[in-house]
Design a protein that fits this description.
By secondary structure, this protein is of the alpha+beta class. The protein folds into 4 domains: about 100 residues, no CATH class; about 80 residues, Alpha-Beta Plaits (2-Layer Sandwich); about 120 residues, Gyrase A, domain 2 (2-Layer Sandwich); about 160 residues, Multidrug efflux transporter AcrB transmembrane domain (Multidrug efflux transporter AcrB transmembrane fold). The chain contains 17 helices and 15 strands. Strands 3-4-2-14 form a 4-stranded antiparallel sheet. The protein has a 4-stranded antiparallel sheet with strand order 8-5-11-12. It starts with a helix and ends in a 13-residue tail after the last helix.
């Protein structure tokens, strides 16, 4: 590849890595701390906060409109000015040079419209930050702390599933299986490094890096009990809703059976249909009457992936059933063509579809938002919980190492990196400068890739980074020494560089490939901090080979062919 092609590759890599790294940089350096704290709240809390702020802000504006209607509107209401400008353009009015409180409020038809506009601003802001939080490089429990959750296994639910009182061995097995499923759900990419352990006979303690976000807990507990498919009884649904309209008070028992047994037939049960609101919170829509006995149990699902509908573009979940489940589903859909199939997750109807034809192994579900579809697909892939888990306690925990230890560790890492940079400059002079540029780019690429993977950065991960820095320098040292040998033989500057890189290539490749193989094995057989170290090391090895063999070569070729240097600067002893 010629220099122009290599330069283009390097520029593309830098731009892509910049895109990967931007969310992390923006989160840690640009987002105010109060916004970070607010975005860690649950979606229900964000909704309450947005509603409260809308009412507070509107009252303040209305009060100002009475006292000082011509006062210039505060900068914190700039978002209302943007809305007001749009309204003025729609109505064909000239936009004021300076926006007063009276001008802005005049653009709203009524109080409700103003409240919704202000509420939407706060909701979009905080929910946007909440989404950003999930796409940044996280700091581990040892560096920044996280959240601690204590779960308790509900043995009554286990007894219902087993249809007998569980023995001590069955209880222990159910809790152990729940721990395995939780680990797969929380650490779906193997880089989150949660700490999950059994506590007592029926409790599970979990510590997860990051802010104490209740929605994160709900995500990996979703599907804690069951995901089943039920046939909807349309006639009974109509009868129940008519009865409900005519009667007030409590009409159902805790299991969804009407207190008046004459309303619907035995074997039917009432379930609420829920859909997500703009905050991503389940909102009750209406009641459906379904057959209590599921037509298909979710345990028959063997795989689930999220796709998009070719017509609407809406997210869909495509899943595959095992052989037994496929046969059951085929018989179910064959017998109920023209009826509605309800998808029931933890006693909530989440979606429904009219059965138009018999279906066997491959099934498609729609009616979900993208994030909900991804969460549900993860739940389906990791199987349903063998036992219901209840959250007993949830709280924030501090950094495991303590602030002093963290500061000392960061100080040691910084000093070590500076010393490596200084050594390469002092010992290899101009070539050392090339190595240092490649080293800085190497760290930039590594951090960007780890950020894109949402890796949790712990001290063990940082150790992998430092080891990578050492190996990157080692590769440059090998290359420089080979160039020295060629240069001392009397070859030209350009020929020495070409021969040095060519002869050092396989030495560098062999050394890095053997380490890469070890890192890949560690990533497969290790867990927690070991796996995090392995991922960091593997990414670092690939990046260091790219910068040492590709970027450094590009810089040398530029110096020799474009700048036409006549003498190589490879150290004090090279003349």
């Amino acid at each position: 590849m010629n220099k122009r092609g290599r330069l283009l590759v390097v520029l593309v890599v830098v731009i892509v890595c910049g895109v990967f790294l931007w969310p992390t940089y923006n989160w840690y350096f640009n987002v105010p701390q109060d916004m970070k704290d607010l975005s860690a709240a649950s979606r229900e809390q964000i909704r309450e906060y947005s509603v409260t702020m809308a009412e507070t802000d509107l009252e303040e504006l209305q009060s100002l409109a009475v006292k000082e209607p011509e006062s210039i509107i505060s900068a914190k209401y700039d978002f209302l000015i943007d809305y007001a400008k749009e309204q003025y353009k729609i109505e064909g009015k000239s936009v004021p040079a300076k926006w007063t409180v009276k001008d802005v409020l005049a653009t709203f038809n009524n109080r409700d419209k103003a409240l919704r506009t202000i509420e939407n601003y706060y909701a979009e802001l905080l929910l946007g930050y909440k989404d950003d939080r999930e796409n940044v490089l996280q700091l581990g429990l040892d560096l920044s702390g996280g959240m601690s959750i204590l779960l308790e296994a509900d043995m009554e639910s286990l007894a219902k599933r087993l249809q007998h009182t569980p023995t001590a061995d069955e209880q222990s097995a159910a809790v152990s299986q729940a721990i395995e499923i939780l680990n797969n759900r929380i650490d779906k990419f193997g880089v989150t490094e949660p700490q999950i352990r059994k506590q007592g006979d029926t409790e599970i303690a979990i510590e997860i890096p990051g802010a104490a976000d209740p929605d994160r807990v709900n995500t990996f507990l979703k599907g804690k009990g069951s995901l089943n498919f039920h046939i909807v009884n349309d006639e009974a649904t109509s009868a129940w809703n008519a009865y409900k309209d005519q009667n007030a008070g409590k009409l159902l028992d805790d299991d969804g059976h009407p207190l008046n047994p004459d309303v619907i037939d035995a074997g039917l049960v009432v379930r609420g249909f829920y859909s997500k609101d703009s905050y991503g919170v389940d909102q009750y829509q209406r009641d459906l009457v379904i057959y209590e006995e599921p037509g298909l149990d979710g345990v028959h699902i063997v795989n689930a992936q999220v796709g998009s509908d070719s017509v609407t573009g809406r997210p869909v979940i495509n899943f595959t059933l095992d052989r037994e489940g496929g046969e059951i589903f085929y018989q179910l859909t064959s017998a109920h063509v023209g009826e509605t199939l309800a998808i029931v997750l933890d006693d909530k109807v989440k979606a429904g579809a009219r059965i138009s034809e018999a279906i066997r192994e491959s099934v498609r579900m729609s009616g979900f938002e993208r994030q909900e579809a991804n969460d549900l697909a993860l739940v389906l892939r990791t199987a349903a919980m063998p036992v219901d888990l209840n959250v007993v306690n949830q709280q924030s925990v501090g950094a495991a190492l303590g602030e002093d230890s963290i500061q000392e560790g960061i100080k040691a890492i910084t000093i070590g990196f500076i010393l490596v940079i200084a050594f390469m400059l002092l010992y290899y002079l101009g070539a050392g400068f090339v190595a240092d540029l490649a080293l800085v780019l190497n760290l930039f690429i590594i951090t960007a890739i780890l950020s894109a993977l949402n890796l949790t950065l712990t001290l063990t991960s940082i150790a992998g980074l430092i080891l990578t820095v050492g190996m990157a320098v080692d590769a440059n040292v090998i290359i420089f020494e080979r160039i020295k040998e060629e240069y001392k033989l009397g070859k030209s500057v350009e020929a020495s560089v070409k021969a040095g890189f060519s002869k050092a290539f396989w030495t560098v490749m062999d050394a890095n490939l053997t380490t890469l193989i070890a890192a890949l094995f560690l990533s497969q057989i290790g867990s927690g901090p070991v796996q995090g170290f392995a991922y960091t090391l593997a990414v670092g090895i690939v990046s260091s080979m790219f910068t040492a063999l590709f970027v450094s070569r590009l810089l040398f070729d530029f110096a020799t062919q474009q700048l036409h240097i006549k003498k190589l600067s490879l150290g004090w002893r090279v003349k």
